[in-house]
Amino acid sequence: MTVPAAGTGPAGTTAASRVDTGPRRGRSALVLAAAVLILMAALLVGVLVGPAGLTARSVLLDLLDAIPGVHVDSGLTPQQHAILWQIRLPRVVLGALVGATLAIAGAAYQGVFRNPLADPYLLGVSSGASLGATVAIVAGGAGVAYGVPVAAFVGGVLAVAATYLLGRGIGGVRSEVVIILAGVAVAAFANAVQTFLMQRYDETLRQVYSWLLGRLSTDGWTDIRVVLPYVVVAAAVILLHRRTLDVMAVGDVEAASLGVNPARVRLVLVGAATLGTAAVVSVSGLIGFVGIVVPHAIRLVVGPGHRLLLPLSLLLGAAFLVFADVVARWALAPAELPIGVVTAAIGAPFFLLVLRRSRGVA
């Protein structure tokens, strides 16, 4: 498979591509606009759902009142206003950031390793983050609320760094298979250490499992301010490489012949995806299947091209997790389901469907 440069090739081919460009761009714009509307609907539903008894009219008026130059009376009491702006909105925004990051990181991993079943936790970031969080919880202390996110972030980044070092020591970083196998080894080691700590300090099991099952509870806007820079950097780097990922889909040898350095691109994209994933996991715990379900579902609809796949993963991943959080809050109200249980209930059947479809194609 070859990718001709713009302006080259037979005249008929160039003319046809010019004719197709307009309609294709128009369809892409419509698809992206629809994804934006879905995300806005998810954010609105996420803000409206809750046990505090806030009416949709009051919430919408209070949101409008926050727009500069607009002054309306929402009728909310000071307590209700605080619930909206310090509890509901931060939770919805955090859910959107976590979902967007996991989905676009999953799409990047799938493109880099040319495997539709790859996810953001592939290289051991989840196991490393879990070990870091477990160590912080076992250590306890007054600063445990801040220590868990920091330890989870450091653990996730160190696990992926160890994966790359191990992969390079075994056979270099040219082969994605070697890197994946190294990630399996690092994850197994981290899981073994975590299991030992959980058995040795069984009084912390409840806290550890609460973190492992995922949660979006926030203390105001602090968590969002912490993770937002990492999310922005990770998403920007991945989106800037969307055309490069299409080139790498033909294989390392062919990509190198087209001027792409596969090893360097793989390192940059895995680093960016890992940075974003470790940041959001550090505040949300482990939320599985988002990085598999969302990109693969989008790929089934719009095709494998990363020019559209990556921005759609960003938008619809955010919407997916916000809707999942609504289900988690509503299903057992006033109690809550761990959001990881909701995403697993959706993702596990989808994962099996993907496996069956892949088997049928093979």
TrEMBL record:
Of the GO CC terms on this record, one is: plasma membrane
The record ties this protein, via InterPro entries, to: ABC_BtuC-like, ABC_transptr_permease_BtuC
Q: Where in the cell is it found?
A: Cell membrane
Compositional bias annotation for Low complexity: 1-16
Q: Where is this region: Disordered?
A: 1-21
Question: Which keywords, in A-to-Z order, does the entry hold?
Answer: Cell membrane, Membrane, Transmembrane, Transmembrane helix, Transport
How does it sit in the bilayer? Multi-pass membrane protein
Membrane-spanning segments: 30-54, 92-109, 121-140, 146-166, 178-197, 267-296, 308-331, 337-355
Q: Which GO terms describe its molecular function?
A: transmembrane transporter activity
Homology family: Belongs to the binding-protein-dependent transport system permease family. FecCD subfamily.
Q: Please give the name of this protein.
A: Iron complex transport system permease protein
Organism name: Rhodococcus tukisamuensis
